[in-house]
Design brief:
The chain is 32% helix and 33% strand. Strand 1 and strand 2 form a beta hairpin. The longest helix is centred in the middle third of the chain and has 18 residues.
């Protein structure tokens, strides 16, 4: 079941793509019992009978293998454990935020120092900072001035940040990326 919201296909949260019990499309499967021992290749019907006699389910763990490998287990418990692992992994993952900062080739010293302070706060908070310097109009002829300011900025951030992407020109914009130093 897929709902259509604003012409976007959105899958429900409880999508289950596991092949288990009657959903297994293969005629012959290699069966592994609940203890982890191979029981050999048999028909899907025989494998389901073995699983049902033990009040367990048959789960296809390797559908691309020939023959497909199926395991006899308690599917409810298995599914719960998988959800628990996914939740734990999601909780442990760290998303790095990238802040954006714009410099100008004709920047005053006070403005420069303010931007350095703000950037160092972001870096110390564990964020990456993308610094852009846009050359407008005739300033494009003065790239060396912009490059000097960019290098001065990088030098000012040298204690707390490393250069992840060296300054480079993309159209009329010079950009670089700074990342926190590893502790």
């Amino acid at each position: 079941m897929v709902s259509n919201i604003n012409n976007r296909k959105v899958a429900p949260n409880n999508v289950n793509d596991d092949l288990f019990n009657e959903k297994i499309p293969f005629r012959e499967v290699l069966v592994i019992n609940a203890d982890g021992e191979q029981m050999g290749v048999m028909s899907k019907k025989e494998a389901l009978d073995i699983a049902y006699k033990q009040n367990l389910d048959l789960l296809c763990v390797a559908p691309k293998a020939r023959p497909a490998v199926c395991k006899v287990l308690d599917y409810g418990r298995y599914h719960f454990e998988q959800q628990k692992k996914a939740k734990e992994a999601k909780r442990k993952q760290h998303v790095v935020e990238v802040k954006s900062l714009r410099l100008s080739p004709i920047i005053d010293t006070h403005d420069f120092e303010t931007k350095v302070r703000q950037t160092s706060k972001w870096i110390e908070a564990g964020m990456k900072v993308k610094i852009d310097m846009r050359f407008r109009g005739r300033l494009i002829t003065r790239l060396e001035v912009g490059r000097k300011i960019m290098n001065d900025f990088i030098e000012a951030m040298d204690e707390v940040a490393i250069v992840e992407k060296k300054p480079s020109m993309e159209g009329n914009t010079m950009s670089t990326v700074l990342a926190p130093k590893k502790k």
